[in-house]
Amino acid sequence: MFDLRGQLTRTQSITLGITGGVLLIALWWMLAEMLAVPALDYRAPALDDPALQNLNRDSLLRADSIQLANARQVGKIYKILPTPLHVVQAYPKLAEEDNLATHTVHSVWLNLKGYFWAIVLSLIIGGLIGFIPLFNGLFASPVDALRYLPISALTGLFMLWFGLGDGMKVAFLTFGILVYMIPVIVQRIREVDDVHLQTSYTLGAGSWQTMRSVYFPSVFSKFMEDLRVLTAISWTYIIIAEILNNTGGLGSLIYWLARRDKTDKVFAVLLLIIVIGILQDRLFVYLDKRLFPHKYYKTKVEGLKEVQMGIFIVLGVFALAVLLPLLVQIPGDMLLQGAGLVVLAAIGLILMGEMKLWKGLQGV
User: Fold this and answer.
1) Is the pLDDT of residue 357 over 60?
2) What SS3 class is residue 364?
3) What DSSP letter does each residue of 82-132 carry, written as one string?
4) Distance CA 128, CA 147 (A)
5) How far apart are CA 125 and CA 174, in angstroms?
6) Among 353, 349, 209, residue whose Cα is nearest residue 293
7) Lowest mean pLDDT among 53-57, 173-177, 264-268
8) CB 358: neighbour CB atoms within 10 A?
9) 24: which residues sit within 8 A by CB, 6+ positions away?
10) Is there a contact between 166 and 110 (Cβ–Cβ < 8 Å)?
11) DSSP string, 293-336
12) CA neighbours closer than 13 Å in the CB half-sphere of residue 123
């Protein structure tokens, strides 16, 4: 366990992971107790009390000091750092009093829309720069330099350009991801192995066939890993945008809870964002395994076609849900019902494929 770049067994990895989590929670709890202040059974005297009118200022201060010194401690106040137990207990209150589910759905939907536009635009712009020398010479250096922009300092400009609605949030998130995605796309195109390209040309493939059979699989298979890295960045930007206009979402909820000194609820929302980020990361890992199976399986197994078809249907429905409201006016209920039925059918197809895939892998 102490060798340089040594490997842990599965049992060691699980045991150490659980131990590390327990130690972090214990450290968190200890710090919360150290920073807590005592809650006293004490109330300052009311200055308009008739019984105190004949007392001078010194007498009032002396009586108040004696009462404070003799006050009984009735608990602790965790204003700076709540304990893990207080954070867990805050979730029912958040659900009942602060509409946690509504804010969560709102933030996730904005996050996904920002991802959608960032991916579409980065593939178009990055593809032009990566494939065509003219665009590479014109725009490669300026686009690469955009990574050094302090994105959070541009919030005022985005409010000026897009207003204070959800459009501003999506645009801000899209731009924040885009400045990192475009150089990544260009780099992935340049990393395609020349051996594969020469083999494709030797076999008589044209430009489009080479892109479809060599470039697309290579670029997209690596791009999925890059998306995982950008998950944390995306949540940072969407929270910043939501704090700006305070009209909904987890960022707005955090802002108002902090203003009301609800520290336990703030930490609860922050932990929820971490959990959502982890789930997004696992989703990208799953999509990578199913859409690019050559990276994980040495043999062809049954069920992959069904899974891939279901995934493409879900992604297509999501793309339509983002694009259709911009093109035509469709009632929200009708759009939601239709999309829900198609997604359920696609999930059924994915589950059927996963069962076939599991059976096939058992026999390998």
Assistant:
1) yes
2) coil
3) --HHHHHHHHHHHHHHS-HHHHHHHHHHHHHHHHHHHHHHHHHHHHHHHH-
4) 18
5) 13
6) 353
7) 53-57
8) 11
9) none
10) yes
11) GGGT-SS--TTHHHHHHHHHHHHHHHHHHHHHHHHS---HHHHH
12) 12
